[in-house]
Amino acid sequence: MGEKAGWEGEILAVQPRIRLNRSFDQRSHTYRGYVLRVRGTWDGKDGVFVVAIGKAAQAKHAFRAGDVVTGKGLPVADTRQETADLYKVSGLKRLAWGPESPPDAPPFLGVPPTLEVYRERNHRRLASPTFQTTCRNCIWGCAMAVEMTLDHWNPALKEYRRETFCYGPKSCRLYEAGPTRTVPGRNGMSWEEEDWVDEEATAHRGPDD
User: Where are the beta strands (DSSP E) in the chain?
Assistant: First the structure.
């Protein structure tokens, strides 16, 4: 598996690490943990990189934006199935604390909730440019690695991509849905995930929830 590389830096964002599996008009989620977007040094090189950590590690450390952390990790083996650069992390240590009271306004930068909260809230699609420019550091933003099974009769036939979503308040002034998404299927067919899917998924939440 190779030798783990050391990394250190300031956390810019803590977001959920969720994989989305699609099969035409069906979808399911795998809640895998969290990702830390870090500005610092990885294997002796400066830059911004993404580190995947487990649910237990986040529960123990309660990481948030502004914390300075260090650890070791491996480069991800299959970038199609991860949004992180590093995973299988060990030796996690907080070197400095971030702000105790981040601003109560978007983008939200505090300690993120448990994965169970994300699952209960459910999400709406989020325009990729909006995620990149305004929501990349918000605890309610999420970039998912998407695996699409194109044919039930030939499950080995798959395609991969990334999609961005928002778990935050419906009233957020930064939110933009962007265009609907199309899921490919067998024999050249496709399915469009229209607005009603998001409306139904978040119908249990009020505008400020």
Answer: 5-23, 26-42, 45-53, 68-75, 86-96, 124-125, 141-149, 158-166, 181-184, 190-193
